[in-house]
Amino acid sequence: QVQLVESGGGLVQAGGSLRLSCAASGIIFSINHMGWYRQAPGKQRELVATITMGRSTNYADSVKGRFTISRDNAKNTVYLQMNSLKPEDTAVYYCNAKHAMRPANDYWGQGTQVTVSS
Q1: Which is it for the CA torsion 92, 104, 5, 52, positive or negative?
Q2: What percentage of residues in the chain have a pLDDT greater than 70?
Q3: Strand 10-13 relative to strand 112-117, pairing
Q4: CA-based nearest residue to 19, from 83, 75, 66
Q5: What are the tens digits of pLDDT across the range 13-27?
Q6: Residues 68, 72, 77, 83: what is their CA dihedral angle, to the nearest 10 degrees?
Q7: Contact 111, 5 (CB under 8 A)
Q8: Complete DSSP assignment for 32-100
Q9: Is residue 16 classed as helix, strand or coil in its secondary structure?
């Protein structure tokens, strides 16, 4: 049974920082591309950042220079360090795992709320 469990969300003032974690089980973590997505009220889910099994990273333009994605294969965990947070970063943040060779094996966490106050 695959589980992706996010943690680290919360309420923070604009300009503050949060670090999200996503602990994975039931998958071979090292051969999964990992990603963070977010969905704000009334909007579609959007990509925030991804990190491949080879540790190549990709970021949405809106978070470049402020967010950093990383992974620890020994802990089966992916992180999202979020700095200089803005009210427009408010959303539910979701962790995603996609098998590198079998992209149909695509899993999501339950999400964690991030709220940035102005």
Answers
A1: negative
A2: 100
A3: parallel
A4: 83
A5: 999 999 999 999 999
A6: -20
A7: no
A8: EEEEEEEE-TTS--EEEEEE-TT--EEE-TTTTTTEEEEEETTTTEEEEEE-S--GGG-EEEEEEEEES
A9: coil
